[in-house]
């Protein structure tokens, strides 16, 4: 019986951790799709670089969230509005960039007439959830 409890606790823990490491479930019902491209250790101990594309269907948005490190955004297609904690909202079109400091709550919305896509590069602490939703 003790072994079953330990296995159950381990399974629940692993499942919970995997949800934080792969935030795809957070994107599932929003019209927003994240595709991880690469993940590598960097020369700063305890940190890694993660790169992903995030696609926004017309009119879709992803609510307030933050990351355990910096995010560098390059808009590949469409028009996106970003709201970053402590800053005025900004609208970016394909070819424009945005830097989001570590831990700053932010959100993004497709305000254009077509699908929008960003390339997101995260420089984050290893072992922490890549994304945390903010209420």
Automatic annotation (TrEMBL):
<dbReference type="InterPro" id="IPR013096">
    <property type="entry name" value="Cupin_2"/>
</dbReference>
<feature type="signal peptide">
    <location>
        <begin position="1"/>
        <end position="28"/>
    </location>
</feature>
<dbReference type="InterPro" id="IPR011051">
    <property type="entry name" value="RmlC_Cupin_sf"/>
</dbReference>
<dbReference type="InterPro" id="IPR014710">
    <property type="entry name" value="RmlC-like_jellyroll"/>
</dbReference>
<dbReference type="Pfam" id="PF07883">
    <property type="entry name" value="Cupin_2"/>
</dbReference>
<feature type="domain" description="Cupin type-2">
    <location>
        <begin position="54"/>
        <end position="118"/>
    </location>
</feature>
<protein>
    <submittedName>
        <fullName>Cupin domain-containing protein</fullName>
    </submittedName>
</protein>
<keyword id="KW-0732">Signal</keyword>
